[in-house]
Amino acid sequence: xxxxxxxxxxxxxxxxxxxxxxxxxxxTFVSKYExxxxxxxxAEFVAVSRAIGxxxxxxxxxxxxxAV
Length: 68
Hints:
Layout: H1 2-11, H2 16-23, H3 27-35, H4 42-52, H5 56-67
């Protein structure tokens, strides 16, 4: 899931700092979940997805498809 969020952020042309600003968080918040140092709960996952401009449900479906 995190790899998909990272790819979506990069595809959107956004930096970690820009995503952090959209979330009203610091860039380190984004860095920590991208590095696996911090987990995202479900509400955070939805907020991050929306901040990046991607449908959270679509990311979940993509993750399910990759797991098969």
